Amino acid sequence: MTIDPRRIRVLKDAPDNANGRYVLYLLQQANRAYNNPALELAIEEANHRGLPVVACFGLLEGSNGFPEANARHYAFLLDGLCDAANGLAKRDIGFVMRKCSPAEIAIDLAEDAALLVLDRGYLGIQKTWYAEICKAVETKIVQVEGDVAVPVELASSRHEFAARTFRPKISPHLDDFLSPLTTRKVKHPARDLDLKTEIDISDPEAVLASMTLDRSVPPVKRFKGGETEARRRLKAFLAGPFEDYGDTRGKPEAGSASHMSPYLHFGQISPVEIVLAAREAKASKEDKSAFVEEVVVRRELAMNHVFYTENYGSYDEAVPEWARETLADKAGDKRPHHYTDRQLANGETHDHGWNVAMKEMRETGYMHNHLRMYWGKKILEWSKTPKEGFERTLRLNNRFFLDGRDPNSFTNVAWIYGLHDRPWVKRPVFGTVRYQNENSLRKFNFKAYEEDVERLCAAENGQAAAEEEDEEPSLL
């Protein structure tokens, strides 16, 4: 199908480079070779011009690396890029990968490009890259939205107060944007181009070993990156646990997880592809509705938050005023427990349930959303000030979670402190911000969950074979 023109933005309206040898696509947010609107537009434009397509990726490392990214994140990313490179090669699309910023590689290769196509992300660092590219590149630049179902500005023109205000705005657009994407045929292969690439991504482990990066958080065995693996997991989820998703998604031990969040974060699968597959699956209308709520409404509410909040990683800007006021009012309340960052990271608290959840996060890069909320509320309770708690929660989140440093991460951490919520009954420390206690752990079979965590962690350490199907039912 034709790419909806509302997904396309002209960032720089300039004439084609008459000497252009290819159409260039900066593979940045959408790290996949299929179901990628930006790539399909690049193919369409290249076919029209009688040119091949070249995709490129700039790999940051060392002091210039992606903020807070470590070996865990890079291993997953590189697996995905290897898979994407294979897919691009099958489609006769050239691929160049270098150790530099995305802006640097795009600017360099754009000198020989008739047109530059970008995909789109919403983090501040990505916006900086786009601005740098637009300033330096002389040829025409178009950007194509492929990371959300509904373009953020179209879904809402302002920062939304909560899901209940966002849902009625985005829902009317879903039928227009939840449609299949045609895979175009490349008419002019890129195999004859003399392209210089610094990185052989066919061996992701070797690339990882060659990088200068933070290795204090190791890669995980539980999740392998790449669009092929994302689709395998999605297929297994829709053929099994999805049938009871509406009833079991809130139970960490129930085995109802899609585990799509890391793959969405790294752009290894399209949210539209996920929803279309879910609509065709064997499940009730209620199950499908609950899943679309997670994949589209909740996830894109997070995109709305980071898009309309300049400093979304700042306590003073990300947390609503009413919540900051009530937390400040209770800042002097006695806190019976206080832990250092190191104690939190090692799971050395008095709360056994919290420690188990932290172990899963630390060892496997994942935690069920029900537990993420409990986990974060306790850090607020155990920190000297709300601002300290916010910053510690975000640091731990971004360090250990595979899908950390994502709009969902920044939004979920701010939710702990009152974002997208309303005032509740006033309590010590929390004021009128929503409170959670150990009763949250009694709403599911905690013993079964703990056994699953022990098995998963043993598998990470090579002590047992991990099951193919994982345990948690929440997308986020």
Describe the model:
The structure is a single chain. The protein has 476 residues and is of the alpha/beta class. Helices cover 46% and strands 7% of the residues. It has a six-stranded mixed sheet with strand order 1-6-5-2-3-4. Helix 2 crosses helix 8, helix 3 runs parallel beside helix 4 and helix 19 packs antiparallel against helix 20. The longest helix has 24 residues. It is globular. The relative contact order is 0.13. The C terminus is likely disordered.
The low-pLDDT segments are 464-476
What would you call the structural class? Answer: alpha/beta
Architecture of the largest domain in CATH?
Orthogonal Bundle
Write down the CATH topology of the largest domain. Answer: DNA Cyclobutane Dipyrimidine Photolyase, subunit A, domain 3
Mean pLDDT: 94
Tally of extended strands? 6
| Amount of beta strand | 5-15%
Order of adjacent strands in the largest pleated sheet: 1-6-5-2-3-4
Topology:
Layout: E1 8-12, E2 22-26, H1 37-49, E3 53-58, H2 71-90, E4 94-98, H3 102-109, E5 113-118, H4 124-136, E6 141-144, H5 152-155, H6 163-170, H7 174-177, H8 204-210, H9 227-239, H10 245-248, H11 261-265, H12 271-280, H13 285-308, H14 315-318, H15 321-329, H16 341-345, H17 352-364, H18 369-381, H19 386-400, H20 407-416, H21 446-460
Parallel strand pairs: 2-3, 2-5, 3-4, 5-6
Antiparallel strand pairs: 1-6
Helix pairs in contact: 2-8, 3-4, 12-13, 13-20, 17-21, 18-19, 19-20
